[in-house]
Amino acid sequence: MRKLLFAVLASSLALAPATAALKLGAKAPDFTTTGAVGGKEFKIHLAEQLKKGPVVLYFFPKAFTSGCTAEAHAFSEAIDDFKKAGAQVIGMSADDLPTLHKFSTEHCRSAFPVATATAEIQKEFDVAWAAHPGITTRTSYVIGRNGQIVMVHDDLDFSQHVAKTLAAVKALK
Predict the structure, then answer these.
(1) How far is CA 57 from the centre of its chain?
(2) First to last CA, the chain
(3) Does 108 qualify as catalytic in the annotation?
(4) pTM for the full predicted model
(5) Which residue of the set 68, 90, 127, 150 is catalytic?
(6) pLDDT tens-digit map of 55-84
(7) CATH second-level architecture of 2-171?
């Protein structure tokens, strides 16, 4: 019985994403990547975005899956609250650009950009999901204007990512 319990526990841990390595107060790695908003392609440079205010950078595993679709809807419904708090939201996944074009209009409702998390970006933000190569973990970062990480939420359950990131953004004021 003990061996069976250990085997079940070990297999469930193997499926869980790794904890985000970037700690509070750490400098967020700068990056440039390509994304889409409203189905239109654009280049995004984190340092440029931070000049406008704090950034909510949320990584999601795979576009058009139930949890990622629900999370995108939740962020799009709360986008006015993020804007009032002076922040912008950027979704990130390892999906290809044509997929993100479609996802940006259908599920992000053209409210915020989604961008490609390259292998380098995944490594720098520690969001590469070891058990599922080519997919990111569900990890949200709030990055202050100074480029420092002010909040990290690393949980496959999408339901608290919007509330926790919005609360962190509001706390910056």
Answers:
(1) 5
(2) 53
(3) no
(4) 0.86
(5) 68
(6) 999 999 999 988 898 999 999 999 999 999
(7) 3-Layer(aba) Sandwich (3.40)
